[in-house]
Design brief:
mainly alpha, 80 residues, 68% helix, 2 helices
Length: 80
């Protein structure tokens, strides 16, 4: 039996690139906010990394779920 490819599977680089993008944006924003709001670069960097990694993992999953075809609804059950 031939192995079928999983339609939801991503190439190995796709997940890593979104994580790297999220971390880089989060670190940049965290450093800026750390200087402006907390007056502490380290605290801003830590918060930015946490938010960036969460967004880097979460946003592609949300995008994938929205682009997936909707499952057909079940026909109404006849009550007898």
């Amino acid at each position: 039996m031939a192995h079928e490819k999983d339609p939801e599977a991503q190439p190995a680089g796709a997940a890593g690139s979104s994580m790297a993008t999220g971390l880089s944006i989060g670190m940049s924003a965290g450093i800026a906010l750390g200087l402006l709001v907390f007056d502490n670069i380290g605290l801003g960097l830590a918060l930015g990394m946490a938010v960036g990694s969460a967004l880097g993992v979460g946003l592609p999953a949300i995008r994938r779920a929205r682009s997936a075809p909707a499952e057909p609804s079940a026909p109404p059950a006849d009550e007898a």
